[in-house]
# Entry
Amino acid sequence: MGQSFSIQFLGTGTSQGIPVIGCECDVCKSVNPKNRRLRTSAIIHTPRLTILIDAGPDLRQQLLGLSDLPEALLITHAHQDHIAGMDDLRPVIFLQGNDSFPVFCNQTTADRVRQMYPYAFVENPYPGAPKFALNIISQSVFHVKDELVIPIFGSHAGMEVLGFRVGPIVYITDMNCISDDELEKAKGAEIMVINALRKEKHHSHFNVDEAIDIGRKSGVPQVYFTHISHHLDHDICLPPGFFMAYDGLKISV
Ligand SMILES: [Zn+2]
Ligand SMILES: [Zn+2]
Ligand SMILES: [Zn+2]
# Structure
């Protein structure tokens, strides 16, 4: 596939963002820019398309200065740190001709998006309101325009969370449970992104050891951690093939 797919991390932080407001810990006070983490989001470029995964509260800042703006949004799940910034897609929608912006998510997320942004779905919307075309993901593959995407189903303290495989890239965040069958969908990929919150166990997120186990089981040669809390310094030691992602990191495959 040559240099035709890439992923750019727009944010790699857990729900509060890093630094955490008011926190005096070493990571929050760190001068290493890689320890500053906006809310988790990424852009995948394919030969055909630019796809945004998740639209959290930092989205405006994350899209400023990007040369390729997203043409579609995939949403992993309906927590605020993944959907609270959708209104900031308005300038993108206007630039792209004011058509409804394609959004792909499960039914629960679609219901939540309608609740959060009712003004986007009324019959006669206020001029300037965002327009979203919600597409419900229920099958084993779907198309975003011409690009084939494989949803990977997992969960996060009982709530369904979707991961996505786009070409050689697998993107998983906010899971603490994934079956072997679903992980099988990562087979043969070249890059896997997975959430790793901290070293200690957590009730709704993989910790570092669990993320390493999942990464190894998948067989994907390069694994990047995201959705990282302030309990994890960028400079921790990881086994070969495992890396801490950071905001702005771009990897081509
Ligand atoms: Zn999250
Ligand atoms: Zn802190
Ligand atoms: Zn979540």
Notes: Residues 49 and 145 are 8 Å apart (CA to CA). The chain has one domain: 6-243. Residues 20, 23, 25, 27-28, 230 surround zinc ion (ligand 2) (CB under 6 Å). The first strand starts at residue 6 and ends at 11.
